[in-house]
Amino acid sequence: MAHTPSPEQADILHSRASVVHIDAVAGAGKTTTMAMIARDACARGLGPAAIACLAFSAGARKRFAQKLAEEGAPAGLVVSTVGDHALRHLNKLMSTGMLDLPPRITGREMRERLVQAAEQVWQRYERAGIATDFDFGIEHSTDRIDHLLQVLRQLKAALKTHQFTEDDFRSVDLHEISEEHDLPVQLIEICAEYERLREPSPGEFAWQAEDDFVPDLVRLLALYPAALDHLWHAALYLVDEWHDVNAAEFKLIALLKRRGRLVVVGDRDQVIDEARGAELRFSAETFLAAYPEAVRFPLRRSRRFGPSVSRAVSRLTSRQVESFEGLHTVQHKLRYAPPVPGSCAAAVIAHARKVHEAEQGVQWSDIAIITRDDDQSIDIENALIDARIPYRCEDVVSYLLRPEILFMRALLHIVSGHYDTLEKDASTVQAMVSALAAFVSMPADRQQFEVDYMKTGRSPRKTPLEEAIESVQGTPSALRWFFDGIVATHRETDSQLTRNWKARFGACVAELTANSASLPTAAAVLQAVQRMVDLPAAVGRAVPRRSEADSAVRSIRSFTQFAEACGKMSIAQFLTELRGRQGKLSARTDAQRHRAQLVLTTVRAAKGQEWDHVILPYLERGEFPRTANLAEEKRFLYVAMTRARASLALAEPDDGHRELWSSLLHGVAARTGAGEPAP
Ligand SMILES: Nc1ncnc2c1ncn2[C@@H]1O[C@H](COP(=O)(O)OP(=O)(O)OP(=O)(O)O)[C@@H](O)[C@H]1O
Questions:
Q1: Is 30 known to sit in a ligand binding site?
Q2: CB distance 252 to 217 below 8 Å
Q3: CB-side exposure of 31: number of CA atoms within 13 Å?
């Protein structure tokens, strides 16, 4: 049903400025306003085909389309992601003969080409006699290739990859790019090599993947400006969630706009999506520099939460946030004692239960627990399971299935020799074998794998990893064979570093197996592994990005604490306990899909959504904020707090642990925006 515009929305609807920048607060009706503009433009005679409704993610596109329907906009209006919009233009250039559309490659082909690029960079180092500790053998680790793909994506989003294919490429300072992105220079070199293979001569692409559509179109339009004349130009561009725009998208929209009207709406305090290259500057100074004629409008008042949250987030962001009359959000403070294991989770679960029982109409699905990062879910998940509260992990993986935990679980199976709990559990085996391979190293290169290990029974349709997974699925005790005979076995082609890791893990498992009688509990084994192997370094190898590696190490520590809390349980009993917990989780996901479940999610995944009751755990130093980047940490907290409608509960250390209070809520940082970083 269409809403009556508020006075602020009415001002925007009446504006005829050629460029409009709407700066809004959370829940202020951003998407609704864009839908109203589209609807009114059509009512004034503009055809739906002349309006480009754009968003940056599939989720945002869906919400925009929903709002168009709610506001009664004509059905002919289509919302696209900017990536799809670019692809449409690339197809157009192809139909006019200006471009040979390159073959689209699959994720697997992309990975193979990255491995090839790494190999070429390594050969360059060899030829030049440059010594390096960097392990170029990325084919040995699925996770390292994944990480490289992520780096490449960011470089493309920032249009940095265009520099790699310039004629004067040698002058590009790769070190500068590596410092800016906080990454080893060798990773940047591999990306540069990949791009040169992909674009052997300017504007000619040997292949294309989804992340290439926007940067490639920008590249073509820079090389051949006349191509713009062949493209379709909208009379009105409406761009939602503008705070998510990255450099490549910003540039493309600027190129396509021409004489069209441009209306963008965003909330600069919601910039937390750096993985896709979103940057704060595009919501402010860069936009105004590019469009000095832009008229700015505010949407200052939230329709989601009441004044108590408005006041709190105004302090946090140093920006005036207001709420519409009649809204009321109750704030609760939950206290816990950080040194007591499980204390925060217990307080959170007790509160969730109280909220659920307080009124009859409250469903579990009206309640969301939002953590800063996914590794913080372990205690909470365990407490939810113990309390028999149905829950689902939204856009995050349950701790029981995270690679670092599956890796530790695999070691427990191998050391104890108990495999019963893996019987008939094909999906856990699949994830566990993959995790073991990623952490210790195995070749992702199919041919090499087959030559070295898989002498029999191979099917040409399967990848090497799939072959191994199938073996362990059939006979779970083959996990030991997989570890000894494949994962930890030296091969000719291993780099020195890989050999060292294989030797370390091999020795660790051999020693633990030999001494298994003196290691009766899971906690004892997990502690011993951490004494024998430098776990942060091992994790860092599988997950090179520091923040993700830190999060994985924290996961392992929490998992060890959970094992300690299980007391004298034998390893077999502990593994059975885990299977039981996992069983409850999957039973809930399958059988109760349509029934009410509490939502457990992270700030990133919660963006753009809202719940009646929101609980934020672990608001303490080192947990939230998690990094020294307080400005970004504040934006994370802002997004988290503004998801609440009726109640918001903040869980923080009790008065006895004031030294652990979060600087985001207390002290200098909370008052001024400055402050001490997390320890
Ligand atoms: N003029 C209006 N009258 C009444 N309700 C409105 C009006 N405009 C928007 N709303 C409602 O306010 C709520 C928030 O709107 P919307 O989802 O568009 O906000 P947003 O700013 O995009 O949120 P986010 O914080 O997720 O970015 C929705 O329930 C919407 O239906």
A1: yes
A2: yes
A3: 21
By alpha-carbon position, which residue is closest to atom 26 of ligand 1?
608
Share of the chain above pLDDT 70, in %: 89
Residue 312 tokens read as 């709190």
How far apart CA 265 and CA 295 sit, in angstroms, is 12
For the stretch 613-672, pLDDT in tens is: 999 999 999 999 988 888 889 999 999 999 999 999 999 999 999 999 999 998 655 555
Q: Which residues line ligand 1 (CB under 6 A)?
A: 3-6, 9, 24, 26-32, 267, 303-304, 608, 642
Rounded Cα gap, residues 22 and 162, in angstroms: 31
User: Which residue, judged by its Cα, is nearest atom 15 of ligand 1?
Assistant: 29
Relative to the CA of 31, which ligand 1 atom is closest?
A: 18
Question: Are the beta carbons of 363 and 340 closer than 8 angstroms?
Answer: no
Per the CB < 8 A criterion, the answer to whether 22 and 12 are in contact is yes
Exposure class string for 616-627: b at 16+ Cβ within 10 A, else e: bbbbbbebbbbe
Other residues' Cβ atoms within 10 Å of the Cβ of residue 530: 16
In the reported structure, the alpha carbon of residue 326 is separated from the centroid of ligand 1 by a whole-number distance in angstroms of 15
Confidence of residue 281 (pLDDT cuts 50, 70, 90): confident
Please state the pTM of the whole predicted model.
Answer: 0.80
Which protein residue has the closest C-alpha to ligand 1 atom 4? 3
Token pair 């909470």 is found at 380
Q: State yes or no: pLDDT of 236 exceeds 90.
A: yes
Residues 537-568: pLDDT tens digits?
777 766 655 667 778 888 898 899 999 999 88
Residue 24 counted as an annotated binding residue? yes
Distance from Cα 328 to the centre of ligand 1, integer Å: 16
Mean pLDDT of 304-313: 95
Tokens 């073991």 -> residue: 436
CA of 234 to the centre of ligand 1 (A): 26
For ligand 1, the distance from its centroid to the CA atom of residue 556, given in whole angstroms, is 40
| Structural domains of the chain ordered from first start | 7-98+224-299 (3.40.50.300), 107-207 (no CATH), 307-390+591-666 (3.40.50.300), 400-585 (1.10.486.10)
Beta-strand (E) ranges in 249-353?
Answer: 261-266, 295-299, 301-302, 322-323, 330-336
Alpha helices in 158-284 (DSSP H): 161-164, 174-180, 185-198, 213-223, 247-257
**Residue type at 63?**
R
> Pocket of ligand 1, candidates 32, 62, 327: which has the most ligand atoms within 8 Å of its Cβ, to mutate?
32
What percent of the chain clears pLDDT 90, i.e. is strictly above it?
A: 52
Q: Which atom of ligand 1 is nearest to the CA of 609?
A: 26
Tokens of 192: 């540069």
Whether the Cβ atoms of residue 191 and residue 155 lie closer than 8 Å to each other: yes
Ligand 1 atom closest to the CA of 6, numbered from 1: 1
Mean pLDDT over all residues of the chain? 86
Pocket test for ligand 1, best of 303, 610, 614 (most atoms within 8 A of CB): 303
83 carries a ligand binding annotation: no
Terminal C-alpha separation, the chain = 50
Distance 141 CA to ligand 1 centre (A): 45
Is the ipTM of this structure higher than 0.90? yes
26 annotated ligand binder: yes
Q: Cα angle vertex 227, ends 225, 230, to 5°?
A: 140
